[in-house]
Specification:
alpha+beta, 23% helix, elongated, single chain
C-alpha cells in the first residue's frame, strides 16, 4: 500500500471542498477571524485551515455550533449567490402545480416585500449587507432586474436570485410588474 503524499493525507472530496467553502464563507460573513472560529470550536488554527481547504476530517458539529448555524447549512452546496434564474412553468387546465423555487438556508434574517412598478420605471437598488441574497418572483408583468452588470429579463412565474450586496437595478418597459421580493441577510451575532 502506498503511503499518502507528505503534507496531504489524501485528495479532497467534493463534499469536503463544499463544506470547507461553506465554513469559510460563513466565518467571513460574520467578520470572524480563523483564529476566533478555531477558538470557539475548540480546534487548532491549522485544523481549521485544513477544513476550509477541503482537507481533514474532524467532526464539524463544533464548527456549526461556533458559527451558530445548523449543521445542514455547512453541507449545502449552493454557495454561489447567483444570479440563479428559474423560469416559470406552464400547467395544463385543471392541473395543480407545486414547485420548490429556491431553498434559503437558516442563519438568515428574511424580509418579504411586494414591489409594484408601473410601466417605464427605473429603480436602482442600494447594495445590502455583505452576503445578502435577493430573490425576485414575478407575479405578473415584465421586469428586467438583477446585478447592474448582468440584468435578466423576467416574466410572470420567473424567479431570480442574486447577490444583493452589489449595485442592482429594477426596470420595467411598456408593461408594469408586480413582484415578491425576499431579502435574505446573514445574521451577524
Amino acid at each position: 500500500m502506498t503511503p499518502p503524499p507528505p503534507g496531504d493525507r489524501r485528495p479532497a472530496s467534493s463534499t469536503a471542498i463544499a463544506i470547507g467553502a461553506q465554513i469559510r464563507r460563513r466565518r467571513e460573513q460574520r467578520g470572524m477571524s480563523g483564529a476566533e472560529l478555531a477558538r470557539r470550536a475548540g480546534l487548532s488554527k491549522a485544523t481549521l485551515s485544513q477544513l476550509e481547504g477541503g482537507r481533514g476530517n474532524p467532526t464539524i458539529d463544533a464548527l456549526a455550533i461556533a458559527l451558530r448555524i445548523p449543521l445542514t447549512d455547512l453541507l449545502a452546496r449552493d454557495t454561489d449567490p447567483g444570479p440563479v434564474f428559474v423560469p416559470g412553468t406552464d400547467l395544463t387546465d385543471g392541473e395543480v402545480g407545486r414547485e420548490l423555487l429556491r431553498r434559503i438556508s437558516s442563519g438568515n434574517s428574511l424580509e418579504i416585500w411586494r414591489l409594484r412598478m408601473p410601466p417605464d420605471t427605473h429603480l436602482d437598488g442600494v447594495p445590502h449587507a455583505t452576503g445578502t441574497i435577493e430573490h425576485l418572483f414575478v407575479a405578473f408583468g415584465h421586469l428586467t432586474a438583477g446585478p447592474t452588470d448582468t440584468l435578466t429579463d423576467l416574466r410572470a412565474g420567473d424567479l431570480l436570485a442574486f447577490a444583493g450586496d452589489v449595485p442592482h437595478t429594477y426596470r420595467t418597459g411598456t408593461e408594469g410588474a408586480d413582484v415578491t421580493v425576499v431579502i435574505a441577510s446573514p445574521v451577524i451575532s
